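Thread amino acids onto this structure.
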């Protein structure tokens, strides 16, 4: 599966647009990790616990989006974007979305 953030695939022609595909996950903070992150805010620097959590969430959402495109027999997903939103205190949704297409 070709996945691009552009509206075209270099060197390929889009034959058909199959529609919007998306994948999402909701991640909640872990109390132990939250405690460690709170300590990190006192001294500064990267909060690795949250970086790892968000990277995992991106991979899950991307995988779900790809499965959605595969169900449509797509060759590629163009215009891929990521969005986040707060669901409740301590939990956030990460959404991956794009347009599934058939290529020549």
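Threaded sequence (104 positions):
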């Amino acid at each position: 599966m070709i996945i691009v953030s552009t509206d075209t695939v270099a060197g390929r022609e889009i034959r058909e647009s199959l529609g919007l595909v998306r994948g999402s996950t909701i991640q909640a903070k872990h109390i132990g990790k939250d405690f460690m992150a709170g300590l990190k805010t006192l001294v500064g620097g990267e909060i690795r616990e949250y970086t790892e959590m968000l990277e995992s969430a991106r991979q899950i959402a991307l995988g779900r989006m790809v499965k959605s495109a595969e169900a449509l027999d797509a060759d590629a997903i163009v215009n891929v974007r990521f969005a986040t939103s707060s669901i409740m205190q301590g939990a956030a949704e990460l959404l991956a979305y794009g347009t599934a297409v058939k290529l020549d």
